[in-house]
């Protein structure tokens, strides 16, 4: 017994220092029954580089972002509806009667409560009696954000445009009534004002200087997609200056954050918590997010929102000329070094541009000493000028530059700075056809110009879109009424070393310019 007692301390030490296999060997050598306890490895832990979190930004800005509920007596817009169903490209009513989903909705409460258009509940009928006021119903949901501590909210025009009553829901669930201060369809912006009698101070955000934003910068979008308020998504600025065809002032930021229906009017933030853009549209074949969303840049929104808050409307400058881009061919035909600026197709009657002496065929190359890039650039910059201000407009005319002083007018109604014409082509006068073989066209003279009677399908004229029935009104800004007059202008251009001539053409869709090669033959 003494030997065993003497061994036990050394055995204890062995248990503390030996492996499982060694412990078993010691136990067997001493004659003690072996009892082995299984040993487990530690949980996996990876020391990875720490990725920056958006949590601080989100925590700071979330109180300023709201959901916007719109009510009206109008038919609801599917654009921002939370319950707009689509089953394989078919609407609910197009599903077969024996479809499982249709049976389910019919058996459990009726389909009306699930309809995207949220019409009156047919189970109970429309109980409005004669002479009663129309019942307001939800028609749209979107997003917005406080831009001032006294309750002004920015959102999209298309969210509130048909609304009669507005409710904003804060991130803590508080619901507040709001009134429409003003809206602007051209930039799709609107401003609401919370009707809060206790004059509380709201958490608000400010606009960023989006000129400092670069493609590839991180952004965070906060909004109310599909009615799920307070939703946060992140992505990058994937492109700038996008024109999506929504109007003359298109200059969108493209972001790849997950933006969906209901995000409209919501803010996109930089990592400093400033608004770089206002979400307004998505590109989606399916109606859901595919990583291409468009936001109104802060530089555009800032001025519009300030005007709406102050006056409830936006007064824009107006030049009153129909314009088109300057292609490389057009630049060559006019002797311009760069394919930039805005080519004047036609000044509108009694417009500021016409009164100042701007003529068709002029190329507007600069405004107030700053070069004009293209028609969109000109339209945006003219719109930003206060009506009544006199500005210097540089134009290229007859092979040289000159400056014209123009008093900017006020853009009225829904007209746009670069208007389009829709004059139909006049019928051709009876006359013998004369061929302009070098250009691949035949023309018939008339009082209003030369009507194109045929176009060689293999010619440059055909490649540039000239068609039978089009009317040629001028060449190199000189009015022409016969083939001889056309040839005289072309010969003069050749002597000046020009390789192209600029033709003004009237079509059923309006007037435009195209440049045709004249150095062959």
From TrEMBL:
Bias kind Basic and acidic residues: ranges: 114-129
Flavoprotein recorded as keyword: no
Subcellular locations according to the entry: Periplasm
Any GO CC annotation of this UniProt entry: periplasmic space
PROSITE patterns attached to this UniProt entry: PDZ (PS50106)
Keyword terms: Hydrolase, Periplasm, Protease, Repeat, Serine protease, Signal, Stress response
Main location class: periplasm
Active site: 158, 188, 264
Top EC category: hydrolase
Signal peptide segment: none
Transmembrane regions listed in the UniProt entry: none
Residues covered by region (Disordered): 111-142, 447-467
GO biological process: proteolysis
Residues that hold substrate according to the record: 71, 158, 188, 262-264
Cross-referenced PANTHER family: PERIPLASMIC SERINE ENDOPROTEASE DEGP-LIKE-RELATED (PTHR22939:SF130), SERINE PROTEASE FAMILY S1C HTRA-RELATED (PTHR22939)
Name the record gives this protein: Probable periplasmic serine endoprotease DegP-like
Source organism (scientific name): Shinella sumterensis
């Amino acid at each position: 017994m003494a030997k065993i007692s003497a061994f036990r301390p050394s055995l204890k030490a062995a248990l503390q220092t030996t492996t499982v296999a060694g412990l078993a060997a010691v136990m067997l050598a001493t004659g003690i029954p072996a009892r082995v306890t299984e040993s487990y490895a530690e949980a996996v832990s990876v020391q990875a580089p720490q990725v920056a979190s958006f949590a601080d930004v989100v925590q700071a800005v979330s109180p300023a972002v709201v959901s916007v509920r719109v009510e009206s007596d109008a038919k609801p817009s599917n654009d921002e509806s939370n319950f707009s169903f689509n089953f394989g490209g078919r609407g609910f009513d197009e599903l077969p009667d024996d479809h499982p989903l249709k049976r389910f909705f019919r058996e459990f409460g009726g389909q009306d409560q699930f309809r995207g258009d949220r019409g009156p509940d047919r189970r109970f009928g429309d109980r409005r009696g004669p002479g009663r006021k129309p019942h307001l119903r939800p028609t749209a949901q979107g997003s917005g954000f406080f831009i001032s501590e006294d309750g002004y909210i920015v959102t999209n025009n298309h969210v509130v445009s048909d609304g009669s009553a507005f409710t904003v829901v804060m991130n803590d669930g508080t619901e507040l009534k709001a009134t429409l201060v003003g809206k602007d369809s051209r930039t799709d912006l609107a401003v609401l004002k919370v009707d809060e009698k206790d004059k509380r101070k709201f958490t608000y955000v400010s606009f960023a200087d989006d000129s400092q934003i670069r493609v590839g910068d991180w952004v965070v979008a906060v909004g109310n997609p599909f009615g799920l308020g307070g939703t946060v998504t992140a992505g990058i600025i994937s492109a700038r200056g996008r024109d999506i065809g929504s109007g003359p002032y298109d200059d969108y930021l493209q972001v790849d954050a997950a933006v969906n229906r209901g995000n409209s009017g919501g803010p996109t933030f930089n990592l400093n918590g400033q608004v770089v853009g206002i979400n307004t549209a998505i590109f989606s074949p399916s109606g859901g997010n595919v990583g291409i969303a468009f936001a109104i840049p802060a530089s555009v929104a800032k001025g519009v929102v300030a005007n709406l808050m102050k006056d409830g409307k936006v007064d824009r400058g107006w030049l009153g000329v129909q314009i088109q881009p300057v292609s490389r061919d057009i630049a060559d035909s006019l002797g311009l070094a760069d394919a930039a600026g805005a080519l004047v197709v036609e000044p509108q009657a009694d417009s500021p541009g016409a009164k100042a002496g701007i003529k068709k065929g002029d190329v507007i190359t600069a405004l107030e000493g700053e070069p004009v890039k293209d028609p969109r650039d000109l339209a945006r910059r003219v719109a930003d000028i206060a009506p009544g201000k006199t500005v210097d407009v540089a134009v290229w005319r007859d092979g040289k530059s000159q400056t014209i002083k123009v008093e900017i007018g006020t853009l009225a109604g829904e007209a746009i700075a670069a208007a389009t014409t829709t004059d139909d082509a006049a019928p051709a006068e009876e006359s013998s056809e004369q061929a302009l073989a070098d250009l691949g066209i035949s023309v018939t003279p008339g009082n209003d110009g030369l009507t194109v009677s045929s176009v060689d399908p293999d010619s440059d004229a055909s490649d540039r879109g000239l068609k039978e029935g089009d009317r040629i009104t001028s060449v190199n800004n000189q009015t022409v009424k016969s083939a001889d007059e056309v040839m005289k202008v072309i010969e003069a251009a050749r002597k000046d070393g020009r390789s192209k001539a600029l033709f003004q053409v009237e079509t059923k869709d309006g007037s435009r310019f195209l440049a045709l090669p004249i150095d062959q033959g």
